[in-house]
Amino acid sequence: RRADSTDAVATFLTRRFGIAGGLAWLGVLTFGVVSEQLKTRREVREARENTKDVANAKEVTTASGLRYTDLRVGGGEVPRNGYLLAANLVATIDGTGDVVLDTRRTNRQVIFTFGKPQGPFTRGVMEAVGSMRQGGRRIVLVPPELGFGDEEVRLQDGTVPAGATVRYDLELTRVSVPPS
């Protein structure tokens, strides 16, 4: 006879020990869920408490030519390849100030997978985000060779001209492990 349940452990415990066995297994599962929620709340609280604003911020230039200035150093998780990230960002054309993307205006964060350049998240942005922590905010200047290159690209609020340096005001609001 086939078991009525797809949970082999619950079936075994209930048949072996009756309702008490099934309730014991339910307790084990509940403990796992509650402990995971407590762990998540602790991580969020620690990230918020460890986030610090930067006074007298200095511009950093990487070997690739990317330039950034930290406005706030996050206290949370560091992005890893494949992690899901949520960010607020305002992208403008350096020199003209033309806004090509503004998630703060629409109040809709951008969700993306770290390590996979797509849309406004070019190689330069991925490089900048890679050294941030959840809760951090920085101004990033992405040169054309790390950005959109010699292509004209249409984003949500405007067009990035070919060969343009793009200035991002980037705030990393969430770093999380992707669902399995």
How would you portray this structure in words?
This protein has helices at 8-17, 19-50, 103-106, 123-130; strands spanning 52-53, 59-61, 67-73, 84-93, 99-102, 110-113, 137-142, 153-154, 159-160, 166-176. It is an alpha+beta fold and 180 residues long. The strands form 2 sheets. Strands 1, 2, 3, 4, 5, 6, 7 and 10 form an 8-stranded antiparallel sheet that branches. Strands 8-9 form a two-stranded antiparallel sheet. Helix 1 packs across helix 2 (19-50). The protein starts with 7 loop residues before the first helix and ends with a strand. This is peptidylprolyl isomerase. It catalyses: [protein]-peptidylproline (omega=180) = [protein]-peptidylproline (omega=0).
- Given the C-alpha coordinates, what overall shape results? elongated
User: What helical percentage do the residues reach?
Assistant: 25-40%
Average per-residue pLDDT, rounded, comes to 88
* CATH architecture designation of the largest domain: Roll
Low-confidence runs: none
Number of E-state strands: 10
Q: Do you know the CATH topology of the largest domain?
A: Chitinase A, domain 3
Strand content: 25-35%
**Structural class, please?**
alpha+beta
How does the major sheet shape up? 8 strands, antiparallel
The total count of helices amounts to 4
Catalytic activity: [protein]-peptidylproline (omega=180) = [protein]-peptidylproline (omega=0)
Pfam families: FKBP_C
InterPro entries: Chloro_FKBP-type_PPIase (IPR053111), PPIase_dom_sf (IPR046357), PPIase_FKBP_dom (IPR001179)
Transmembrane segments: 17-35
